[in-house]
Amino acid sequence: MGYGGSRGDAGRAIGKLGDGGLDGVIDEDPLGLDRVYIQAKRYRADSAVAEPEIRGFARKLGERKGHQGVFVTTSHFTGPASAFAEKIAKRIVLIDGDQLARLMVKYGVLVRVEETPMKQHLAAIRQLFDYLTTGGVLDVNPAASVRGPKYVVKRGKTPVLFV
Asked: Phi/psi class of residue 4: alpha, beta or left (left: φ > 0; alpha: ψ in -120 to 50)?
């Protein structure tokens, strides 16, 4: 059946920005018997989610009589935070920034993946071999016959790549 099934009202926001509480809930079945609670934290990459935040989330789950939750952050979790989530009776899944990005790409959430044209791949290969040749690593550029994109200077000294 999946999270929320096909119902549009299965997931909803229950918190407000900066309230320190739960941010959302997903009803796994139409009766709302199984619920997954969500907590999201937007932290800088150099700031980690520590154990006290996970403890607070577990406490909020208990207040709502919840047994499972997902804690999502744009940064990462400390070792003690991860260890606490593993050892408690409630099921808490931790999703850090890297895993969040992978999931967003995998399920096409707010991202668009485009294929790079073959001409750009060939141009990159030629530029790599040009660099290796001028640096003295290679005597001859094996990709010299590959035609790359033209460089055109519009304004200033920065080359603009036209394909």
From this structure: left
Q: How far apart are CA 91 and CA 55, in angstroms?
A: 12
Find the domain containing 50 and state its range.
11-107
Total structural domains in the chain? Answer: 2
pTM of the complete model: 0.64
Strand 35-41 and strand 24-27: the pairing is antiparallel
Q: Residue 128 is inside which H or E element, if any?
A: helix 118-134
Residue entry with tokens 């460089």: 151
Q: Count CB neighbours of 67 within 10 A.
A: 15
Alpha helix stretches (DSSP H) within 7-110 = 51-63, 79-87, 97-107
126 in a structural domain:
yes
- Please state the φ and ψ torsions of residue 69, each to the nearest 5 degrees: -155, 165
Q: Are residues 94 and 151 in the same domain?
A: no
Find all residues with CB under 8 Å of 124, minimum gap 6, and list them.
none
pLDDT in tens, 98-136: 999 888 888 888 777 677 777 777 777 778 888 788 877
Written as one letter, the residue type at 99 is: Q
User: Domain for residue 150, yes or no?
Assistant: yes
